[in-house]
What does this fold into?
Amino acid sequence: MRAAVRSELRKLFSTRLWWVLALSGGAYLAIMGVAMAFVFSFEAAANDSADLGFNISATSRGRPDPALLTYSIAGSMAYVFPLLIGTLSVTQEFRHRTITGTFTAEPRRHVVLCAKMLASLPMGLVMGAACVAALVSPAALVFAGQGVPNGLGSAETWAFLGRALLDFTVWAGVGVGVGALLRNQVAAIVVVLAVTQFVEPVLRMLGAMLDGWSWTRFLPGAAGDAIQGVSVYDAMADINSAEPMGFGWAALVLAAWGVGFAAIAYATTWRRDVS
Amino acid sequence: MIQVRALSKRFGQVNAVIDLSFTARDGRVTAFLGPNGSGKTTTLRAALGLLKPTAGDVLFDGRHYQDIRRPARQIGASLEASSFHPGRTALDHLLTLAPGAAVAEERCREVLDLVGLAGQANRRVGGYSMGMRGRLGIAAALLGDPGTLLLDEPTNGLDPEGISWMRNLIRAMAAQGRTVLISSHLLGEVERTVDDVVIIARGQLVHASPIADLERFGAPTAVVAATDPPALAALVARAGWDAQWGADGSALIRGVTPVGIGQAAFDAGLVLTQLASQKPGLEQAFFRLTEGGGLQ
Ligand SMILES: Nc1ncnc2c1ncn2[C@@H]1O[C@H](COP(=O)(O)OP(=O)(O)O)[C@@H](O)[C@H]1O
Ligand SMILES: [Mg+2]
It folds into this structure.
């Protein structure tokens, strides 16, 4: 297993894909973060102690914390990047037919699948670190410049950022499950984008508004946000009364999605002929 | 030793391999020959556990591939020239395989040097030619210094210099006591390299023997000339023989024994000035054995 994990790590880090995705995710977050920081700063300045129209922190349910809300887009908007690196790490093998070499080097196919999943975790962490740094540093400067507390002095913020890294890490593993299930690269990209950018957001918005839809908090994106503990979705509505999951449970729920996808893949297509 | 035992593989309606059995022995180079689509790659993939056989199995020194731990240290395989990620360099490609073969970067550089790619180690494989990819595939197969080599069409895409390099490499490997199985659809490319031949057509075994025994399977060929060339031409036409005419009026006739030609000439009242049996070529034996055995 150790050899297989090392092999998968080298595969992940030896093509341009990971840093292209990390760069895209970082750039996207940096721009969004700066924009949000300005908006919050101006609003905060305009009506100092007034309600911002958001009901922010899912953990404290207290006054909005603009900094934390801004930083929360790391997990809730950019999780598609670690998800994609995990997914592509599998689909590329089928696309370029390198899966032949992979299964020849390690004929025990369950070992290959586990190794891919394990190797994706440090990759998710690295991408998370890059994305969070790209988001937080400029946004924190903007807050500081506008005289709004940027939270970097508080342990709560750092704990939050740590949970965001955990979120990225688990998402990469989920990606491996998705890739193993779909195998076809184009199909996988389309499904990942459709689900993360449309299907799940719609379900979660409905979940936030409709009674009896609290199951939507077990959706992967919702679980991912619950790992962070703060998200724009929670802030958008008055939030169903459901008590938020602890981040440990949330991480388990998200991990279960990844393991579930991988298990279905293993039971169905993973052991098929490769030619 | 590689033992293919009653191997069959079916893809839907296509019987790609049918009840195939043969053995590749240690210290010898075995050529696995057959026209395109005859089932060579399918057999090799089944041997490596990539395909599940419909029936039968393949053993490497008595064990199934799937049961061998760190298989790269015992069996080196190169299946397709195109199975590389185009964005990865040759060295990085080998480094991804290195943990499985339990070797370090030094060995990766060593095999790159061995296949003549040392200068290209840090180039992305996407820019490689067919021949260079073939060499990289061989380098990957050699990485774990395995006692058994399985090479699928290793001469594809190689230039003449590359083919001769490949021959020497294969001979050297067998001389060290390794088992080498190479597939090819061209006997001519391997006939000077191999010890044994296994020939398949339409997924079935048609011949297995040391290469020297293959010649017997060529069609009989004879050179014939007569005092009266037009009468000889008329006889050839009447008999429907496959003939090639020389400038001197002699004919190279394939598929008929000298006895048959002599008898027919005698019956026709021809005086022959020449009737000589010719050694049939290996390539011809190969064609004859696999006639029509290609793509289904
Ligand atoms: N995955 C597959 N699905 C369906 N048919 C296949 C598959 N792989 C090979 N075949 C068929 O099996 C036969 C043997 O193919 P192959 O083993 O690749 O031949 P060779 O390597 O001798 O050229 C061919 O008719 C080919 O079309
Ligand atoms: Mg083939």
Notes: Residues B 40-41, 152-153 surround magnesium ion (ligand 2) (CB under 6 Å). The longest helix of chain A spans residues 109-146. Chain A has a mean pLDDT of 87. Chain A has one domain: 2-267.
